[in-house]
Structure formats: C-alpha cells, structure tokens
C-alpha cells in the first residue's frame, strides 16, 4: 500500500487530477486545469487552475452519485473569501456521462473514466477511514 495517489482525467480542453498526498489525511484534492487559448495548459505551479479539498463525508456523497444511488450532488466551498460551487451529476437518466463542475471548470467523464474514478475514490475513502481515523497509542 502506498501513502499517496494521483490520477488525471484529461479531455481536449479540461483536465481534473484526483490527489491524495497522504493516507493519514482525512481528505483528498481535486485539481482542475484548462487549455489556454494559446494551446498551453494552465500550470498549477504558477497558481493557475483550481484546487479543492474534499472531505470524507463529501467523498461518500460523490460515490453515491458515481454508483447511481443519487442523480446529483452539489455543495459550495468557501476559502479565503472565495466561493466555489461544486456539482457531480449525470447528463440524463439513461446516460453513461457524468459532469463534474467545479467553479468555472467543467469536465465530462465517459463510462470507463467514471468506473476508474469510482474505484479510486472508493479505495481512497476506505484507506483514509483506516489510517486517518486511527487513534494514536
């Protein structure tokens, strides 16, 4: 078992990266970047793009959408006077297309990407429940 994870989901113009920097932290990050009009991708190292922290409880809600137990999940994050709307929703009732909207970033996942995303978030949630909630002896 490793301590950190990173998986990217890129399209032609938008990418999201799911990151867990430590199995001991009770959260993950979702980072969003876009292709600029020049053709280059935003660079997180230059403070471009958007990054949000997702709690254990939020991970559960995301998994419920990924497993089609809910049609949509949305919330709002506030950080340093910045408000970010977040939503995970199916394109329609019979769709294999999931839309992830984080602020001004919108990413569509197809069936295979959805399954990888679901397995990853489920794994991270299970791992973090074991390690981030462990009581120090």
Could you describe the 3D structure shown?
- With 137 residues, the chain is α+β, with helices and mostly antiparallel strands.
- It has one domain (5-131): Transcriptional Coactivator Pc4, Chain A (Transcriptional Co-activator pc4, Chain A), CATH 2.30.31.
- 23% of the residues lie in helices and 39% in strands.
- The protein has two helices and eight strands, in the order E-E-E-E-H-E-E-E-E-H.
- It has a four-stranded antiparallel beta sheet.
- Strand 7 (98-102) and strand 8 form a beta hairpin.
- Helix 1 (56-66) packs antiparallel against helix 2 (111-131).
- It is globular, with a radius of gyration of 15 Å.
- The model has no long low-confidence stretch (mean pLDDT 94).
Question: What is the overall number of helices?
Answer: 2
Backbone structural class: alpha+beta
Tell me the helix content.
10-25%
Q: What's the rounded overall pLDDT mean?
A: 94
> What is the spatial order of strands in the main beta sheet?
1-2-3-4
DSSP, total strands:
8
Q: Biggest sheet: strands, sense, closure?
A: 4 strands, antiparallel
| Separation of the first and last Cα atoms | 22 Å
- How many domains is the backbone divided into? 1
What is the level 1 CATH name? Mainly Beta
CATH superfamily: Transcriptional Coactivator Pc4, Chain A
Low-confidence stretches: none
Shape: globular
Look up the CATH topology: Transcriptional Co-activator pc4, Chain A
Radius of gyration from the CA trace?
A: 15 Å
Output the helix-strand order: EEEEHEEEEH
What CATH architecture do you see? Roll
Name the beta content range.
35-45%
């Amino acid at each position: 078992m490793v301590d950190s994870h990173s998986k990217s989901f890129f399209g032609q113009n938008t990418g999201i990266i799911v990151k867990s920097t430590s199995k001991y932290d009770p959260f993950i990050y979702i980072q969003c970047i876009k292709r600029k009009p020049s053709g280059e991708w935003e660079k997180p190292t230059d403070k471009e793009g958007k990054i949000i922290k997702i709690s254990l409880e939020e991970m559960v809600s995301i998994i419920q959408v990924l497993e089609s137990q809910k049609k949509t999940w949305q919330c709002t994050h506030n950080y340093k006077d910045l408000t970010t709307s977040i939503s995970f929703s199916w394109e329609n009732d019979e769709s294999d297309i999931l839309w992830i909207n984080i602020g001004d970033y919108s990413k569509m996942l197809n069936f295979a990407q959805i399954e990888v995303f679901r397995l990853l978030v489920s794994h991270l949630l299970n791992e973090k429940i074991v390690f981030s909630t462990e009581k120090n002896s």
